[in-house]
Amino acid sequence: MNKYLIVSLFIFALSGIANAQIGNRDPGVPDHTPMMNSTWEAIDKMMYKVTYEGSKKIYTPSYPPPLKALENKVVTLPGYLVPLNSGRNHKVFMLSVLPVMQCQFCGSNGIPPMVEIFMKDGTVKFTDEPIKVKGKMKFNPKPLEGNSEIQIIDAVLIK
Hints:
Radius of gyration: 21 Å
Number of helices: 3
Helix content: 10-25%
Strand content: 35-45%
Number of strands: 9
Largest sheet: 5 strands, mixed, barrel
Strand order of the largest sheet: 3-5-6-9-8
Shape: globular
Order of helices and strands: HHEEHEEEEEEE
CATH class of the domain at 72-157: Mainly Beta
């Protein structure tokens, strides 16, 4: 009888912990919902063509028609700021469809879509809350030299 009581209490305690982690969200914790919209969906379709130079693999970005149609167009993107440099204010940064803090096992199920943002004027203060920017989408002609394949230039923060 004591064994059953102990096992029952243990299961009850575990179910309470699981409920606290899943069901009862703290209103002070940001909602880490993906910021997916039609522009992000197009960005997410980008693939890489793999070629070889000897034994070295070369990855070249391939832009499908829905994404290619956005080149040189002004787009609006909601997302999460990912700093490229330390500091409070950022003029150039990455924007992700998911917050970095959510990426506990980043890369195990693919990397979330990201674009490089170049602000037109001023800077954006770091936040873990979602932001929204508007600017012209460009494809970087030399992404293998260290910058993102997709960039938003002359970006402005939308409040």
